[in-house]
Automatic annotation (TrEMBL):
Homology family: Belongs to the pseudouridine synthase RsuA family.
TM annotation in the entry: none
UniProt KW keywords: Isomerase, RNA-binding
UniProt keyword Oxidoreductase, yes or no: no
Official protein name in the record: Pseudouridine synthase
Top-level EC class as recorded in UniProt: isomerase
Source species taxonomy: Bacteria, Bacillati, Mycoplasmatota, Mollicutes, Acholeplasmatales
Amino acid sequence: MRLDKYLAHAGHGTRSEVKKIIQKGLVEVNGVIIKKDDQKIDEENDEIIVSGEKSNYTKHVYLMLHKPAGVISSNYDPNHKTTKDLIKGYEHYATFPVGRLDLDTEGLLIITNDGLLAHQLLSPRYHVDKTYYVEFSGDYQSIYTALFETGVTLEDGYLCMPSKIELLEPQKALLTIKEGKYHQVKRMFMVLGMTVTYLKRVSFGPIALDETLPKGKFRPLSETELEALKKVVS
């Protein structure tokens, strides 16, 4: 990788800013001062010192975001705040959300720049579980449990994969699905005569939402969480 590209990716500034840092002789590679911004380096093995401090480079980042309602699961939207707006300090990484949550849906979103892992987690091949806490209006009948478990047919004729529902109270439940169709949870309840009034994703595969994480805040996944996440698609 070019030295200037590495420094920009490592968060030392924009490409133009890091070029100035290099030209000033503030960057060492394996103990040698480098003043050429196009110097090729081994980003994983070379020791890079910037202004006297060791630079650490991470190719991929994996973050847990507690998405609040009113935020779009996107990197850009002209009318709403986006999940990208919430990930401060990681602007130099080309991160994106793994899947989407509706504008009014809260809860767990995984943010990464690892395209391969994101593709695998969303692939129909792996059917990664996603669990939601649901509040709804309308009457829940006992027969609905069997319908969820065998597969609810949506209004457009699509037969959902079998899901698992746990009724917590008369109008509160935990629902686990293996897909991510557009407004799927809301549509599953709708065809059974109920209306979702509040929706929150509480887990994605083996990763549970950290309930100590305030809405709108994020943290890196722990090594244990990341290993568990990768294991479900291995």
